[in-house]
Fold each of these.
Amino acid sequence: MIDTNVLKGKIAENGLSQAKVAKEIGITPKTFYEKMNKGVFGSDEIEVMIKLLGIEEPSKIFFAQQVT
């Protein structure tokens, strides 16, 4: 499960919008928002975001443990 709050923070930290990130990973902003709500992205999309956002510890964002 993706920690979407941390991902949103990284996007903002880099001065980008979610729409810009969507374009960079090759999906529409609507699809990006839907994937954010579900907390699920494909491995190729994750790879692009890691590079684009300069994420040093991707496992903390993209493989976050869901608290029950």
Amino acid sequence: MLGRPANDFAYFDAPFTALAHRGGITEHAPIEVENSLRGFRAAWEFGFTHLETDVHTTADGVLVAFHDEVLDRVTDASGRLADLPWAEVQGARIGGSEPIPRLDDLLDALPAARFNIDLKSPSAVEPLAATIERHGAQERVCVGSFHVASITAFRKRTGGRVATAASPTEVAVFSLLPGVRSRWPLAGQAFQMPERHPRTGLRLLTRGMVDAAHRRGAVVHVWTINDRPTMERLIDLGVDGIVSDDLATLKAVLVERDLWEGHA
């Protein structure tokens, strides 16, 4: 393993990691305000300690916590984030009411929360690393990316001081080629993955894959799971975490199984 094992990082110190996807859905934050500070605060107040977000940069380099490349789907504004200055982006409202937060805002507002961060654009590598350093948040975050070059550059920039998730290539190789699992050079601490490959439909998650990850010192988190039967089945399979929009169901399942480690 090239990187440090997961148990070297405080981020992974709970026996099971419950992750609120873009803030999740709670009584005080409907899906319409996804990835807003309101949504993340509501998830924290509901007891979730681990919150999932994506990051992009604006045209003038401001790091924002937002899922899409464009504003159109969830805000009352339009345009590509990469083409717009922060002065314009900060006027957009998620669900017509909530401002788009910077990652700085989330780290300041929720100082005890841990964040799973999806690095969405190559331009965000340096601002993300700098933001984490500025807040001393190395043990509070785990960073992943669908872009191999981006996560590779982030690992190099942070020198192994920040936990990272396996790239899609690392997930596919480790899942689909059992013969290389014992010697594949893992650089990250977590396999954060769907059950099946999004394009081919091939099954990625198996008991053998989970067991092999554990032997290599890595954890397995599965996204995005919103139904009780699948949550139950995955826990039985031995996964270490679940990403969900349905926070009430995930919390109930974990409480019943004595796996809930939230702060409330």
Amino acid sequence: MRKYDMISALAEYTAKELVRNEESWRAYLNTASRLYKYPFKEQLLIYAQRPDATACASIDIWNEKMHCWVNKGAKGIALIDEDGNTYSGLKYVFDISDVHKARRIGRFPHLWEMREEHAEAVLDRLERIYGETDAEAGFTERIREIAGRIAEDCYKELAADMEYIKEGSFLEELDELNVEVRLRETLADSISYTVLKRCGMPESILTEEINFPYIHEFNTVETLAQLGSNVSDLSKLSDGTLWEVKTAL
């Protein structure tokens, strides 16, 4: 079997595994929260091959921009080359754990760590975009309020698209209203989880706070891709704001 076919099969298998239960979806979101710059399909394959990855880049970026060299024996993470730039149909990225800095000129990307003193700056920047939240509530509740607004703004359009691809999934027999409810709540909770995990919230606390009771119903590659791509894109809006806070501090 060609390597491309193996990676394609891995992507399909992993997609189905993600929605087996809430724990599987959380495990994926833990990885995705660290790799917010990547689209869903690439997050999926990075998770499948290296769930503990923290910062990935191509060998060109590591070499030319960061002046870091790939460790001997390191194995690249294979991704589907959607742009068709490679003969094999694949491209490869390496995690930060796979490289080392060149003497004097090498540098690693700065991995932002959320601190308590950053909370107000994060909320302030998010509220400028998404509106004010309940000032009496805690950080987690305010992030969830913002995530709910993001999901509210787009779930109807996404649910309409889901009607065309839900065949074969557990969503198939549901009417439009019930599909909308499941999509809105799963979107809001997934965005909340991703952003809060990126802010350093422990998984044990997030597990108590956020549940995904409908995730098993997105049990086809098509419905999961629709959900996952939008979670990735919509979380990226908030994570972009975290990046702005990071660079401003």
Amino acid sequence: MRRKIEFTKMQGLGNDYIYVDAVKYPLPNPERYAVEWSRPHTGIGSDGLVLIGASDKADFSMRIFNADGSEARMCGNASRCIGKYVYENGLTDKDEVLLDTLSGVKVLRLYVENGEVNRVSVDMGVPADIRPVSLGDGYPFAEGMSVSMGNPHLVIFVDDVSKVDVAAVGSRLECHPFFPDRVNVEFAQVIAPGKIRMRVWERGSGVTQACGTGACATAVAAFSTGRGGEDTEVVMDGGALQVSWTGPSGHLFMTGPAVKVFEGKIEV
């Protein structure tokens, strides 16, 4: 027997996902629906599927599935959108929400005006695995910086990010042998003190408008290589995020918008 699932499509800087309250609408095979619903012409169209669930260690849990059905450990843009979703749907009245993810519990700080959440700041924890990576022969770039934000990133600094074929190069680097579980790839250009232009190839989704963890990884890589300081504006195709980090032992904070696109129902 088929049933109707209520969903909300939301986006953070153009990084768009389908959000489902998994407590109300359990989905036994989310990988399948992530693939089917993410298709732009025959589905809803998105970068993937996000399930909002219960947790015994936080206010809510998040599971996120990319457009190819693979499960991601963390997504900064999606976590901000969850903050907006749970507050505006009456699931919480808190302006500080704990979110249980595969990369740990994250703290969401909601900025509310007239009953609506317009910005969310996320405590992304302490970045890890910060080290240079030699890419080897056969790649157009000699090296990059590895950064883990709960998920793996490879940040490559370039002179002109507009000239990088993100799809061609990013798809190759996603499967670089240094990263056995594949990697998200960011191409970054310092355009002013404290300001970086970044484009991204996301593991499992391809070229996207923005990537929250990618923006964080880029700011960390800039700080670690002397290209940036503690506060960085990371400008992506879909817009800008503010990233603050005091260094290796400190927590990193990311702040940006969350937007509801539309609500709907779909049969399964």
